[in-house]
Amino acid sequence: MNLEDTIVAISTPIGESGIGIVRMSGKNAFFIAKKLFVPARTNQISWTSSFKIYYGWIMDPETKERVDEVLLSLMRAPRTYTREDIVEINCHGGPVVLRRVLELCLKLGARLAEPGEFTKRAFLNGRIDLSQAESVLEIVKAKTEKSLQLAVKSLEGRVSNLILTLRDKIIDVLSALEAEIDFCEEEIEVISRKEKGLILSQIEQELSELVENARSSEVFREGIKVVIAGRPNVGKSSLLNSMLQRERVIVSQIPGTTRDTIEEYINIKGFPVKMVDTAGLGKTEDPLAEEGAKRTRHYLEEADIIIALVDGSCPLTDEDREILELLKEYKKKILPVINKIDLPQKICKDELKKLFPQTPPLEISALRGDNLEGLKNEILNLILKDVNVDSDQLMINLRQKKCLEKAQEFITKAREGLNLGVSEEFLILDIREALKYLDQITGRNLGDEVLDRIFSNFCIGK
């Protein structure tokens, strides 16, 4: 990757739409645009201006053929997304016209941008740090309003500011330890070992809270996986359709209609919840149904919550009992649910309560939508048992979490060493390691290979 190149990419999804954007960034962006753009009014464009939008046409400079009617946005460095000159060509949103404009830019010397290269340049040029760059991806991938709000907080610098505050505290302790070594024979005012221990304890606690925050933010990012399980024809597909409020799955009175797993996200009070409709778990001679049951067992392994669905219009069958006992073996949060309360009830609720004494069964009608809000509330209650949702919630990704855990590990080691009377030289080594991992969060201390891996997760054009 050469940062001297002018890069170009289509920044909107490919497909038919009202508008599509081709974005260029780099020292030759204006030069290339000048070759391609013909303003609707002659001499009505200033190529030295910034933050201006002009109406006109993109023209092939060789054939003089008009390619599209466009709006051209000019943004001069350094007050741009990448801190480089940026040109955005707002075309009509057809894939053919966008590709044609892109090809003309490439022909005039631009290079096709790599995934995430615009944001990577914003980071390398100092406009944002690495945690803010990663929050851009979180915004693009946000599944709910809440996850979007958390990602925007990170883009604003909330995570960065916390890390920098912790870094300053660690450097204060590190400086005091180094001063004791360098000026051991001189009378200088230093922080006592007790005071250093208290500061390290405080840092350790703050790091622990950030790690806990990371566990909660993972739920907002990835969502909770809720698997609907039960024997064939108890209403698993009907329940998924009702939760989605649309006919996503074919529903039939014939048992075993669903042969595969079907996943869809729903939003429960800001939490993205992946609902998974599964094939029945009953015994079968049908190889297709057996493959479906095999996939169901795989999803049960990955589930956060299992909805154990039974048919309330008939007594529990031996097949029901066998499946319910099987579900208990997965050691997951299980929510027993009785479906079809719109029909005369024949199920023995006491038997179900004995199987799941900790969780009273919930009664619903997937067909009529009865008590689905109650089911959503129960799912939410199970989520909230493990998730922090206070006002200080931040979006911290897995990479950042691992860095925080390593920093916490070395701060703990330094604090314990301090209490045991370990010499300053060894304490300094541990504290410097903690600093190294904190710096990796903001991007102060990362190699090219790690950076490439991070930005490769971005889409081209961002």
Please give the order of strands in the largest beta sheet. Answer: 3-4-5-6-2-1-7
Strand-residue proportion: 15-25%
CATH homology-level superfamily of the largest domain = P-loop containing nucleotide triphosphate hydrolases
Main beta sheet: strand number and arrangement? 7 strands, mixed
List keywords for this structure.
462 residues, alpha/beta, Gyrase A, domain 2, Four Helix Bundle (Hemerythrin (Met), subunit A), Rossmann fold, 3 domains
How would you describe this structure to a colleague?
The chain is flat, with a radius of gyration of 29 Å. 46% of the residues lie in helices and 16% in strands. The two termini are 16 Å apart. The chain has 462 residues and is α/β, with parallel strands linked by helices. A hairpin with a 2-residue loop joins strand 9 and strand 10. Helix 13 runs antiparallel to helix 14 (424-442). It has 3 domains: 7-128, 2-Layer Sandwich (Gyrase A, domain 2), CATH 3.30.1360.120; 136-219 and 397-442, Four Helix Bundle (Hemerythrin (Met), subunit A); 224-384, P-loop containing nucleotide triphosphate hydrolases (Rossmann fold, 3-Layer(aba) Sandwich), CATH 3.40.50. The strands form 2 sheets. Strands 3-4-5-6-2-1-7 form a 7-stranded mixed β-sheet. Strands 9-10-8-11-12-13 form a 6-stranded mixed β-sheet, sandwiched between helices. The protein is built from 15 helices and 13 strands.
